[in-house]
Design brief:
About 70% of the residues lie in helices and about 0% in strands. With about 100 residues, the chain is mainly α. It has one domain. The longest helix is centred in the N-terminal third of the chain and has 18 residues.
């Protein structure tokens, strides 16, 4: 039986250092903060929703987030820390109930 190792064609995702990933996320957050201020709780929620939309629709942003990790996002964008932790706790609770 022959083993197929597969072929990678057109690999567009370059490996990023944590510093490069942080810079790219900071640039995106700065752009979002220009368009969506975070003074009030409502504005913070709008900002988080816009960031979430960007993550869902932009594969480049997803790749950067994976390179930088969730903790990096929490440091760069403190308003996202609460929903991230809520999601983590929800997943932990759901896994314990299995």
């Amino acid at each position: 039986m022959e083993e197929n190792q597969g072929t990678i064609i057109g690999k567009n995702v370059a490996e990023k250092t944590p510093a490069e990933a942080a810079k790219e996320i900071q640039d995106l957050l700065a752009q979002l903060q220009t368009n969506y201020p975070t003074t009030t709780e409502y504005e913070k929620q709008v900002f988080v929703n816009k960031f979430n939309d960007e993550v869902k629709t932009n594969s480049r942003v997803r790749d950067v987030i994976l390179a930088g990790g969730i903790e990096l996002i929490k440091i760069l964008c403190p308003p996202l820390g609460i929903p991230i932790e809520m999601g983590k706790r929800w997943l932990e609770t759901a896994q314990k109930q299995k």
